Amino acid sequence: MPAFFNRKITTVINDTENNDREETKVGKKGFPGMGGMPNMNNMMKQAQKMQKQMAEMQEQLEQQEFEASAGGGVITVKVNGKKEIIDIQIKPEAVDPDDVEMLQDLIMAVVNEAMRIADETVSREMGKLTGGMNLPGF
């Protein structure tokens, strides 16, 4: 527990007869004057535990593979949780030298779909840990 949570707080109070007296308070439940704020040490422990769980989850998700296909399965793309393309499969029947634009469109569509699947899965899994809080970077 950080030292400032257990320190003794002494305040000099002037009473109506101009006699000084001391009032002593010991902060055991957070900052003095914060109306019973929950124990900050416990909150910090919980935050650290959540941070560790999120890091573990993120590492698992980065290793996971996501796949999408287009054109009836003639093009298949795999990406990982880091949004890196790790495999592209193109069947010979997808290649038409007279229609290269169609192949380009199919590749773009399937890559975007694989990335979308990865994003949705990562967001859903991280949301389970954060309770729906939208934390930047996760």
State the helix count. 2
Total number of beta strands: 5
The total domain count is 2
- CATH homologous superfamily label of the largest domain: Nucleoid-associated protein YbaB-like domain
Principal-axes geometry comes out as rod-shaped
Level of helix content? 25-40%
Q: What pattern of helices and strands is seen along the backbone?
A: EEHEEEH
How would you characterize the largest beta sheet?
A: 3 strands, antiparallel
Poorly predicted runs are 1-15, 26-30
CATH class of the largest domain: Alpha Beta
What would the average pLDDT be, to the nearest integer? 77
Overview of the molecule:
The protein is of the alpha+beta class. The protein folds into two domains: 1-40, no CATH class; 61-130, Nucleoid-associated protein YbaB-like domain (Ybab, Chain: A, 2-Layer Sandwich). The protein is 40% helix and 23% strand. The chain contains two helices and five strands. The chain has helices at residues 40-63, 100-130, and strands spanning 8-14, 20-26, 65-70, 75-80, 85-90. A three-stranded antiparallel β-sheet has the order 3-4-5. A hairpin with a 4-residue loop joins strand 3 and strand 4 (75-80). Helix 1 packs antiparallel against helix 2. The model is unreliable at 1-15 and 26-30 (pLDDT under 50). Binds to DNA and alters its conformation. May be involved in regulation of gene expression, nucleoid organization and DNA protection. This is Nucleoid-associated protein SAMN06296020_10787. Pfam families: YbaB_DNA_bd.
